[in-house]
Every structure is written in C-alpha cells, then in structure tokens.
C-alpha cells in the first residue's frame, strides 16, 4: 500500500470508500474471528485520557464504527467532530449515530486542509488512515495546528507484516484463476506504519509513545474470507458480467479448500497498535 491507488484521494473517495460496504466487510472478519476477546475499539478507548468536556476530532472517521462500539462508555460532556474525505462515509456515520446526534458533528473534509481554527481540539483521532494521506507531513501539520497546547493525537496503524497470511491467500487465488488483483492491500512499505510512525510524528510532537494491541485471526469460514479479499480490490468488480460471477464462485470454492487444507482454520497474525503523541 505504499502509493498509487492506496493514496489516491479520488480512488479512495469514489471507489474504495464511496460507501461503507468494503470497510464493513473487513470489520466483520475481525469481529467474527479475532482471538483477543477484548475488542479493538474497547482497548482503544482504554488508552485515551482526556479532560472533562473534551473536544475531539476524528479524521477519516469512516462509518463511525469506533463510536458505535464504545457509546455506553462515552462521557456525556465530550463533543466529537467526525470528518472524512468521503461523503458516503460521513452519511453512514451520521446514520449509525442518529440516535446520539447531539454529541456529534459530521463534516466532509480533507485531513491535509482542516477547516478548523488553531488550538480548537483536546484530541485528534486518526485511526488506520494516515497511510492513505498523499501529503502526510501536511496532514500532521494540520493536526498539530488544530490541537490545543498539550493536546493529544491518537493515531492507529498497522505493522508491515499485519495479516500477511491474507495477502498470501490472495496471491495464491490470483495465480490459480489468472486474475491480477492489482490494487489489493498490502502492509509492506506503508507510508505510516508501526515501524516508521514515530519518525513521521517527531517533527510535530515531543512525547511519542507506541502501544501494541495483541491479536490474531482464526478464520474458519470461507464466505467472510472471500468477502474480505473482494473488499480490498476492484479487479474482480471490473470484470464483465459473465466472467465476474464465475470468478467470485471460484474464490469461494478456493477459500473453502484453502481453509480445509489448514485443518479447518486459517491462522492470520496481526500487527496493529496506536501512537499517542503530545
């Protein structure tokens, strides 16, 4: 995911994240097959320390999955602004939080040019999105600008070997059926990763801490595995109406055989965590 479509705002806004379907397919795999019973979103909130009546900005909020998961734990005096480059994602976020709209503001904007005054927020959340930003330095400057003095950035990302077993599965399928999954996701050479994130944060923050979340997947069902792979690439969607159903059926059959050949469970190591920067 070093460059190309993975950091192309037009592709991300109009195709990969035009709505929440691709992201929800990936979230579903984690929710169903993660080995850590204490979920990622709950762990994430445990790392957050903020003053009363905090103002929070999330950049790249997606469908607001974090906030849906932790709603019962949110302090009632927090005021949270959710922003995303994709109008479809902001619409999904607003719909998912419609019963709690008084605590949230929803806005479409670009993390590289935030439309907020300086020193406005106690915290900025950037969850698995900074590696998408074409100009990472510009985004970090903007985040630093809109934070109050002493404010905190919580930036989640992956390590370079995160879910490598899924990439191996995808390549094996592509070779078997002769389909090039040219824009599938890989965590190798991420622009902002667990390995290089501190280096990118250092020009803007004096205190940087990395915290890792221990987890893995044990995938025992073919359908969610196939859906995950399809969510990461548009190569299959671009096929003509006759070939696409055949390739999707072949993927499902391949996934069943792939899992069965591994004793009924595909082990997928994860590498994910959080930078806390002040």
Detailed description of the structure:
The protein is of the alpha/beta class and 278 residues long. It has a single domain (4-161, 186-216, 270-277), classed as Vaccinia Virus protein VP39 (Rossmann fold, 3-Layer(aba) Sandwich). It contains 10 helices and 9 strands. Helix 2 packs antiparallel against helix 9 (222-231) and helix 9 (222-231) crosses helix 10. The two termini are 27 Å apart. The mean pLDDT is 90.
How is this fold's topology laid out?
Layout: H1 9-16, H2 21-33, H3 40-46, E1 55-59, H4 65-70, E2 79-84, H5 87-96, E3 104-108, E4 121-127, H6 136-146, E5 147-158, H7 164-177, H8 197-201, E6 208-213, E7 216-219, H9 222-231, H10 243-260, E8 266-269, E9 272-277
